[in-house]
Amino acid sequence: MELFLDISELSLKKHGESVCGDQIRTARTPDKTIVVLSDGLGSGIKASILATLTTEIIIRMLKADVGLADVVETVIGTLPVCRVRKIAYSTFAVMEILHADYSYKIVNFDSPEAMLFRGRRLMRPERHTMRIHDRDILVSQGRLEQGDFICLTSDGVLHAGLGVKMNFGWGWDNVAEHVERRLEASPQCAWEVTRNVLAQTYSLYGGKPGDDASVVGILVRRRNRVVVLTGPPLDRATESAIVERFLASKARKIVCGGTTGNIVARHVGREVKVDMKTVTPEVPPIGELPGVDLLTEGIITMSKMLELLEECQFNPAMLPSRRDGAVLLAREMLNADVIHFIVGQSINEFYQNPDVSKHISIRKNLIREIVFALNQHGKEVTVEYC
Q1: For the chain, which terminus, N or C, has the lower number of CB atoms within 10 Å?
Q2: 109 and 88 in contact (C-beta within 8 Å)?
Q3: What single-letter DSSP state applies at residue 276?
Q4: What pTM value is reported for the model?
Q5: Listed residue (373, 368, 365) closest to 383, CA to CA
Q6: Is residue 61 within 8 Å of 73, Cβ to Cβ?
Q7: What are 338's strand-pairing partners?
Q8: For the structural domain made of 3-222, what CATH number should be given?
Q9: Domain locations in the chain?
Q10: Predicted pLDDT at 359
């Protein structure tokens, strides 16, 4: 079974500060995924710089395949110690997950212990303590399964409500119980849980966080795949083969373009039914066709979809609630992990600028912009021209 690590990271800066003193970095290589959450001492710019240096050192060394134990020893040996408080200028949690078997290792250096949930319930993974430079380092390890959820937090989350709504703050156990309740709702993505935990943190602080607070959520789930067919191919003789391959895909199937929709309709021997309830002044209506999950108009809808993605900052909760082709297409893109575009290169003269080379279509340029935006936000995108 092909699993996917759905990772969401959110932070709150301390009230009155211009930047957050916590830093989160995620890196994916062909062999592993690395997540680092670092908490700089204090708050503000100085804390942010210290936390940034810590995360950068760890990420660079782990990407270079330096052993995790050696990385931790190097960082702890390098970090300065506050002379007054006798604590490191930056604490951190590191999680390394191997893609081959989804085995993981989590290292906590003076940071809150990671929370692992299986079957929507908190579980205690195998743990041991390492002694490095006279400091106790907590190490957790095991193997992830589909449905597992991992939560990393900074101290600011556990201290939420301290002196405001709670005598001793929210606390590790209460945060874990809160996550369990959110998992009972069977979230479709890690962002749903992460956002909720940080919203509760903000509320407990009375809207004025007394410390930087960060949450990282990792949901192990099936990989969501989408294939998008847009534009007729240059060679009409290849239409049937392309449509057959498109319809045979196990991914969610999307068609963008009226001409493309009619090509698929002819192949399956059905007619496209237009849903006029979805038409707006800016976006043409969607169509319905057996075997296709979403059928929209082409250039106009895709252009509007790209605008929506940028406006909502790739946050699905910020998408408009209306049901039109652009919103539905944007939601499909946000829900997908892997997206494959099959782009026909037959030029529609209606969309061409006579001053532009015949070899460059508006569709092709638009696809390049969409692919770039999706890649920038962690989507795995491939393009096939026909």
Answers
A1: N
A2: yes
A3: G
A4: 0.80
A5: 368
A6: no
A7: 225, 380
A8: 3.60.40.10
A9: 3-222, 225-385
A10: 39
